[in-house]
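Exercise 7. Given the encoded structure of a 456-residue chain, write a plausible sequence.
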């Protein structure tokens, strides 16, 4: 009996010490912050909080005395913190987000297991879905520990929670208190550094990063496929929807987030196919135009391509750059004809040859894009004047500049405007940096595999 009381006192003492240590984190962090502001140090503070959260919830995942719905809720509660953490680093050092991307997407994704009736009904610790969650959880912890190696190992902020195995047998009250204290400390630390906080931190939410508002499961994307008369055959209407659903599956330990990358590829390729088919149509109109209007109309289209690139994640895209290069070369040659450096009698032949080369390039690019988007986008283009049916329009005469302005330029403007309006909650630059992190993660995996194969 005495021994039991003694053990209880020791356990209580340890509990108090742990809580005190976690209470000190806030003060230590503040003082360290005052000494030197550095986004990498700030990230280390955040990594400590995130790792602590992940390690405590990892214990909960393995404990039969925790309901899975409770553990999932505990994991997801950190999402609000991590969005704000990312926002305090992003505008200072966009390339230094690292594994905070992982816990951000994960802590939101896991709530799907609570909202889906199917998963809620079948999910238990013997199901594949649960095994995938545990493996993904461990994958993120491992990646975060790798990310944490550059942090100062001797600072209490980075070492206070290293021995989490010792807590595996602690009672629920102990673990719950530990989890809540860590959450509150990180929340308070963010509040203290409110001056660094980007107000619109929800641009780092998963729905925003996954471009949910434009989204494959909503009406807008279906309209995009059909409203601009680009005459593309979409073989599987639900191809992008399938990619979107698979991007939410938590099998990251084996998948390395490649299903998310595939979703983005299908999504942006779909938009790019539409833009390139509009390009095909525009230059078909230009074949019918008088010489004096062609240069201006070609320049206007380059502006549309640049705007498309800025709006979406195809910025610095090789295909768009290739087409812009062709159009710019075309404009340069037109100037030579205008200035009398080339014989005007040869222009019709040159114009026809340019169009043939342009269509050949578009044909090649669109064929490759359709491998991902599962479509057919290289059938001949015809000028029927069906665009913008709900808007008052001029008579359709391909030789008239007003026709090109309305049926081509205005149609493209409507396409670009609808991208902007329907994805106003998304910051495409944020999406680009998230995709870059996935690429970096996958490249690191490939490099490790190469080193292992070289050793063997």
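Solution.
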């Amino acid at each position: 009996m005495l021994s039991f009381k003694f053990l209880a006192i020791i356990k209580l003492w340890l509990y108090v010490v742990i809580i005190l240590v976690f209470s000190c984190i806030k003060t230590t962090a503040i003082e360290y912050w005052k000494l030197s502001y550095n986004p990498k140090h700030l990230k280390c503070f955040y990594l400590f909080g995130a790792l602590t959260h992940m390690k405590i919830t990892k214990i909960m995942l393995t404990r039969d005395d925790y309901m899975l719905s409770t553990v999932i809720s505990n994991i997801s509660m950190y999402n609000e913190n991590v969005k704000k953490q990312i926002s305090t680093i992003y505008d200072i050092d966009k390339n230094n987000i690292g594994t905070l991307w992982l816990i951000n997407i994960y802590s939101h994704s896991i709530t799907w297991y609570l909202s889906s009736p199917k998963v809620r009904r079948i999910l238990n610790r013997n199901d594949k879905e649960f095994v995938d969650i545990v493996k993904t959880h461990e994958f993120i912890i491992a990646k975060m520990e790798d990310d944490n190696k550059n942090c100062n190992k001797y600072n209490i902020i980075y070492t206070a929670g290293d021995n989490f195995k010792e807590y595996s047998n602690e009672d629920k009250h102990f673990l719950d208190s530990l989890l809540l204290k860590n959450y509150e400390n990180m929340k308070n630390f963010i509040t203290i550094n409110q001056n660094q906080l980007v107000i619109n931190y929800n641009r780092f939410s998963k729905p925003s990063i996954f471009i949910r508002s434009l989204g494959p499961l909503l009406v807008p994307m279906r309209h995009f496929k059909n409203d601009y008369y680009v005459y593309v055959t979409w073989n599987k209407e639900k191809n992008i929807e399938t990619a979107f659903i698979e991007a939410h599956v938590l099998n990251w330990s084996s998948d390395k987030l490649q299903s998310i990358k595939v979703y983005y590829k299908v999504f942006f390729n779909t938009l790019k196919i539409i833009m390139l088919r509009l390009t095909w149509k525009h230059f078909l109109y230009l074949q019918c135009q008088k010489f004096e209007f062609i240069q201006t109309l070609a320049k206007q289209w380059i502006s549309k391509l640049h705007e498309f690139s800025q709006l979406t994640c195809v910025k610095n895209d090789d295909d768009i750059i290739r087409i812009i290069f062709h159009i710019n070369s075309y404009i340069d040659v037109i100037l030579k004809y205008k200035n009398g450096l080339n014989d005007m009698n040869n222009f019709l032949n040159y114009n026809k040859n340019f169009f043939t080369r342009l269509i050949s390039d578009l044909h090649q690019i669109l064929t490759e894009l359709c491998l991902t988007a599962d479509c057919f986008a290289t059938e001949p283009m015809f000028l029927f004047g069906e665009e913008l049916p709900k808007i008052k329009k001029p008579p359709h005469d391909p030789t008239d500049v007003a026709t090109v302005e309305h049926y081509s330029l205005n149609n493209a403007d409507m396409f670009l405007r609808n991208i902007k309006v329907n994805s106003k909650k998304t910051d495409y630059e944020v999406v680009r940096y998230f995709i870059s992190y996935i690429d970096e993660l996958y490249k690191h995996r490939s490099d490790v595999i190469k080193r292992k194969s070289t050793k063997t």
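Remark. Residues 258 and 438 are 8 Å apart (CA to CA). Students should compare their own answers with the one above.
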